Every structure is written in C-alpha cells, then in structure tokens.
Amino acid sequence: MNVLSFVNAFFSDSAHWHGYDGIPHRVLEHIGYSLMALGIAAAIGLPVGLLTGHTGRGGNTLAFIATAARALPSFGLLVLMFVLLGLGLLPVMIPLVVLAIPPILVTTYEAVRSVDPSPVDAARGMGMQESRILLQVELPVALPLILSGLRSAAIQIVSTATIAAYVSLGGLGRYIVDGLYQRDYEKVVGGATLVAVLALATLAVFWAVTRLAVSPGVRRSA
Amino acid sequence: MNGFFDIPSDLQHSYLGLIGLHLREALLPVLAGLLLALPLAQLCVRFRWLYPPVLGVTTVLYAIPSLAFFVVLIDYTGQTELTVMIPLAVYSLVVLVPAIVDGVRSVPQETLAAATAMGFGPVRRYVQVQLPIAVPAIIAGLRVATVSSISLVSVGTLIGNQGALGNLLADAMFYHRPVLAVNSVVTTAFLAIVMDALLVLVRVLLTPWMPRGTRKRPKAAGAPEPAAPALEDAVR
C-alpha cells in the first residue's frame, strides 16, 4: 500500500463523511478557526500598519517585532499557552493571532511606505485630506503587497491550526493527531491531504481576491 | 533538583544534548537546501523562462503545512529524524531560490561587462563577482530559512519524539510541568536569535565593502528592502 491508496481508502469510506468527526464538520471547523484568527489579526495589524506606513514612523520597532515573532516557535507557544491556561479556544487563539499579526503588520507598513511619493504629493496638492490620501491613493496602490501579507498570515494560520489539534483544538489536525495515536495511517494521510488541499485553496482564494480587488492600472505597473 | 535545566530522562539527552540535536535537525536541512538552491537558482538566472514556473511550484510547496508533510513521509522514511529534515530542507530550498535569483540578478550589467573585459570566464565570473555581490540577498534568505527551520523542528515531536527541544513540550503536558514548556520556548527562541545574529555577522565579514553602520538607512534602503516583502511570505 502506498500513500495514494491510503488516501483513496480514507476518502471512499463513507463513515468519514458524516457526524461530528466527519470531513464536512472538520473542514468547517478548521475554516472557522482560521477565519477567526485571521480576522482578529487583521483587525489589529492592518490599521496599525496603514497608519505607521502613512506616517513612516516606527519602522525600527516593526522590524524588531518581525524578527522577534519569527524567532518564536509556533508549536512551543501553543503548548505553553495550553499548559498555562488550560482547555479552550483562548489558549489556541492567542498563539494563532500573535503569530499572524507580524506578517500583516510589517508587509502593510512596507507596502504603504513604498508607494510612489509623487501621486501622494499630487493628491495632497489637490487638497485631499490625509485620511482620504491614505484610503483612496495609498491603499489601492499598496493593495497587492498588503494582500500578499494577509496571504502568508492565512497560510501560517491554516498550518498552525493543524498542529493545534495536539492541544485539543478541533479541525483537520484531529485526523492527523488521532490517527497517529490510533496507529491508523489511513486517517493520518487522509487528514494530511485535506490540510494540504485547504492550504492550496487558501492560496487560490487570495489569488482570486487579488485579481478582483487590485485595480487594473496598479496591476499593469506592478 | 527542580532546576530549570533538568531534563526528564525519557528524552535520553541532557539540556545541551537537546540543543545539539535541535541544531543538527534544523541546520543540516538548511545546508542541504542551500546546496540544492545554488544550482537551481543559477538555472533560473540562465534560462529566464524557467523562473516563473519554479516560483509557482515553490509557492505551492511552501503552503503545505509542515505536519502534513511530515506524516506523508512517514510511509517512506519512518518516524525518524530524516522525516523531519526532508520537509525542512524543502522549505529552505523554497525560501533560498528566489533570494539567490534576486541577488544574482541584481548584479549590475556594467560590473559583469567589466569582469568579462578583465578576462573572467563564466565560472570565475560567477564565483568571484556574482556570488559575492549577491551575498546580502542570500544571507537574508538564509536568515529566514534558518530561523523558521529552528522553530519547525519542534513540530517533529508529533511524529514520535523527533522534535529535539520540542520533545520538552510533550513532556510538559505528560508531567504537568509548565516550566518545561517555558524552557523549550525560551531556548528555541534563543537559538533562533543567536543563529540570526551569527548570519548577520557572516554577512558583515563577507561584504567588507558595505558601509558598517548598517543600522541606518543609506544602504539598507537599497539592498534588502526589495527582498523584505517577499521574505515576509516565508514566515510560518
């Protein structure tokens, strides 16, 4: 039996398709956790990144935060929060959000800061308010990079949420972790396939959003 | 007893032993990734049409979660160190190829022409001109690869105690000792920061022509900035 036949066996077993431990429920759980973490991280990272990028201040602090966050081990943080705070969604959400903020924050900062200054000056010369400059001039131009920051945060959340099954979170990681404990390799590989597909789907969603949301003029010059 | 550095005996390593194991499991893959990335990047520079598909494949590979990667390999390499090291090598490769390609491509045309005019052959020109000039970009890639590799080794715990310092996390749960988890997180982060600093030092030593006050804007704005957003992708 090679990996492909394990995968095939996993997906053709109808017992895997319904109930609490069924594929639809676990997929929805995983998507739910990921969206929640991404939403919180974006709600914090995007405004701060836009403002610091617009004013051009705090670059060194942000670079420090990025380095520090990169050094933090995601799995270690998960287990640490779990042993300190116990069961529940909170000890898992904290590491997911903490690790997703830096890519969003730093990329947004870089994106807004590296916007060509001449259209910004032109907008200011035409009498636009600072808030309108940020939202109507800088944001559209910076959008591709901002979306790439959100994308790497989302990918990271999806893969860390998988590991979080080890500390009791639901989602697709359950198949991998439970399967390993039960010595049920079919389940392990089936879960791994689902996680990989979900990660690729995330890439695809961001590709589509970028196609739709980025203005054609910006895309051409990029 | 009860010391911070006391390690449960089921891990069969001392504190320093775990650190050695962790560094080996994290750094060998980065080295392997670098050795594979150099020729691959050179191919991408030589044949331009090759780069976009390679970039697409690397983006997809990088999106695959580490745990999924580990467990699929179990069928081929068992629950061993190798199963942890192969995905880490792939992730390193994926980070390094764009870094090296961007670095080598950033070498000005005049510099290449000057080297050719001085009688440098293609190989000598690559080794003595293009690679040294690309060093800052390559080191920037190596920093991201090394740090994320050090962080990801811990996940190896899940596939049967192959996580070095990460195994402390499993023990923290078995024995209800949060201090073991603290030890693991702090030590892993410390290793990552030390390795990061060492790579910065290597870059300073390898590029004596660059201005020393690298903290300030002048050169920093020129060289590492374009790579920064791309490398931010590499955070996991």
UniProtKB/TrEMBL annotation, chain A:
<dbReference type="GO" id="GO:0031460">
    <property type="term" value="P:glycine betaine transport"/>
</dbReference>
<feature type="transmembrane region" description="Helical">
    <location>
        <begin position="31"/>
        <end position="50"/>
    </location>
</feature>
<feature type="domain" description="ABC transmembrane type-1">
    <location>
        <begin position="27"/>
        <end position="206"/>
    </location>
</feature>
<dbReference type="Pfam" id="PF00528">
    <property type="entry name" value="BPD_transp_1"/>
</dbReference>
<dbReference type="InterPro" id="IPR000515">
    <property type="entry name" value="MetI-like"/>
</dbReference>
<keyword id="KW-1133">Transmembrane helix</keyword>
<comment type="similarity">
    <text>Belongs to the binding-protein-dependent transport system permease family.</text>
</comment>
<dbReference type="InterPro" id="IPR035906">
    <property type="entry name" value="MetI-like_sf"/>
</dbReference>
<keyword id="KW-0813">Transport</keyword>
<feature type="transmembrane region" description="Helical">
    <location>
        <begin position="157"/>
        <end position="177"/>
    </location>
</feature>
<keyword id="KW-0812">Transmembrane</keyword>
<feature type="transmembrane region" description="Helical">
    <location>
        <begin position="62"/>
        <end position="86"/>
    </location>
</feature>
<dbReference type="GO" id="GO:0005886">
    <property type="term" value="C:plasma membrane"/>
</dbReference>
<keyword id="KW-0472">Membrane</keyword>
<feature type="transmembrane region" description="Helical">
    <location>
        <begin position="189"/>
        <end position="209"/>
    </location>
</feature>
<protein>
    <submittedName>
        <fullName>Carnitine transport permease protein OpuCB</fullName>
    </submittedName>
</protein>
<dbReference type="GO" id="GO:0055085">
    <property type="term" value="P:transmembrane transport"/>
</dbReference>
<dbReference type="InterPro" id="IPR051204">
    <property type="entry name" value="ABC_transp_perm/SBD"/>
</dbReference>
From TrEMBL, chain B:
<dbReference type="InterPro" id="IPR051204">
    <property type="entry name" value="ABC_transp_perm/SBD"/>
</dbReference>
<keyword id="KW-0472">Membrane</keyword>
<keyword id="KW-0812">Transmembrane</keyword>
<comment type="similarity">
    <text>Belongs to the binding-protein-dependent transport system permease family.</text>
</comment>
<feature type="transmembrane region" description="Helical">
    <location>
        <begin position="179"/>
        <end position="206"/>
    </location>
</feature>
<dbReference type="GO" id="GO:0005886">
    <property type="term" value="C:plasma membrane"/>
</dbReference>
<keyword id="KW-0813">Transport</keyword>
<protein>
    <submittedName>
        <fullName>Choline transport system permease protein OpuBB</fullName>
    </submittedName>
</protein>
<feature type="transmembrane region" description="Helical">
    <location>
        <begin position="133"/>
        <end position="159"/>
    </location>
</feature>
<feature type="transmembrane region" description="Helical">
    <location>
        <begin position="26"/>
        <end position="47"/>
    </location>
</feature>
<feature type="transmembrane region" description="Helical">
    <location>
        <begin position="82"/>
        <end position="101"/>
    </location>
</feature>
<feature type="compositionally biased region" description="Low complexity">
    <location>
        <begin position="220"/>
        <end position="230"/>
    </location>
</feature>
<dbReference type="Pfam" id="PF00528">
    <property type="entry name" value="BPD_transp_1"/>
</dbReference>
<feature type="region of interest" description="Disordered">
    <location>
        <begin position="214"/>
        <end position="236"/>
    </location>
</feature>
<feature type="domain" description="ABC transmembrane type-1">
    <location>
        <begin position="19"/>
        <end position="203"/>
    </location>
</feature>
<keyword id="KW-1133">Transmembrane helix</keyword>
<dbReference type="InterPro" id="IPR000515">
    <property type="entry name" value="MetI-like"/>
</dbReference>
<dbReference type="GO" id="GO:0031460">
    <property type="term" value="P:glycine betaine transport"/>
</dbReference>
<dbReference type="InterPro" id="IPR035906">
    <property type="entry name" value="MetI-like_sf"/>
</dbReference>
<dbReference type="GO" id="GO:0055085">
    <property type="term" value="P:transmembrane transport"/>
</dbReference>
<feature type="transmembrane region" description="Helical">
    <location>
        <begin position="54"/>
        <end position="76"/>
    </location>
</feature>
